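User: As part of a screening pipeline, I want to sanity-check one entry by hand. Below is the sequence and the SMILES for magnesium ion. Please return the complex as structure tokens so I can compare it with the automated output.
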Amino acid sequence: MTGQGSRWVDAVEGIFSVVPDLATPEQVEASLREILGDASLELFWWDWESERYVDVHGRATELGAAGPGRAVTDVGYASRKVGAIAHDARLLDEPEFVGSFVPTIRIAMERDRLHRDLVRKLDELQASRLRIVTAGDEERRRLERNLHDGAQQRLVITLLTLRRLEEAVAGSSELAPLVASARRELESAIEDLRELARGLHPPLLARRGLAAAVRAASSRSATPVELDLRLPYELPPAVEAAAYYVCAEAVTNTVKHAQASQVWLTIVHENGALTVDVRDDGVGGACIDCDAASTGLGGLVDRVESLGGTLELDSPQGEGTRLVATFPVRAGQPGGSLGYSDA
Ligand SMILES: Nc1ncnc2c1ncn2[C@@H]1O[C@H](COP(=O)(O)OP(=O)(O)OP(=O)(O)O)[C@@H](O)[C@H]1O
Ligand SMILES: [Mg+2]
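Assistant: Here is the complex for your manual check:
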């Protein structure tokens, strides 16, 4: 490094181009060695959590004392540590080093640290949301199996017995209507239970995939649903489940709140994304998390965002409601190559 001012201007400008948001600390250190012409330069970041300096590999380290020909320059504020540079002591002879270079590297290092922290926290948040959603799904699946294999089976066996009894008492004008009424009640209770289990975790989804499960759910809707399904037979199971729950919640909401005459439901897979678009011509005015008792749409936001997707709601008063979920479906994930189910 020469003492010429222009070299320093270049060096200072160089800092921001070598500390791009995602350059590794090692790359930053290597570039600074080059910019400053000091092959022995070492960079240290102050780790707020462990309250120690860490080197470019993230290993806790002591800064060590300055020795002959070697200096350690603090890169921080009086009230807050940011990092430090160990370097050739001759750099201190250049006024620009302390006057321009160090303040600039301080900003760059702090920005870099904040950025890394933010990325890490967002990753942690996404992972924890995914864990919550997955745990919820496992619990629903378990309940569905328990209902199916437990209560539902026993009620079906009781129904068979009741049908035999109905035949046996067919001649009795007193008993026959009583038994017939009990049989009808039991049939409708079994249907209710089946419906409940299906809502908890639709078995069709695992067995026959998203298109079949959405078709079956739509055919049960009290408001007519027009379907346009252009999706691969196979998708990542978590995306399939999330897409299904978006459709189920949107259609249920329309039936419950919208006073609509029609629902249009489209699922398209193109350009590495799966888009679920559900629209109705009802009263509009839907909102997410607007009161404590309404958790349907808020739960969908968690589910969709935990998979890196987005959920958008558009619902002006009097103009119907549109819910659009988009999921990234990367190449290499299962699905996407097996053809289309409803083209
Ligand atoms: N398609 C729609 N048309 C009109 N209003 C809607 C529609 N969807 C939702 N809303 C309104 O937005 C609110 C929030 O919906 P959300 O699904 O979060 O809750 P909910 O359906 O009331 O209850 P939950 O889904 O928790 O059983 C609803 O209470 C309703 O007032
Ligand atoms: Mg709802």
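Points to compare against the pipeline: The pocket of adenosine-5'-triphosphate (ligand 1) is lined by residues 249, 253-254, 256-258, 280, 282-287, 294-298, 321 (CB under 6 Å). The chain has two domains: 5-123, 205-343.
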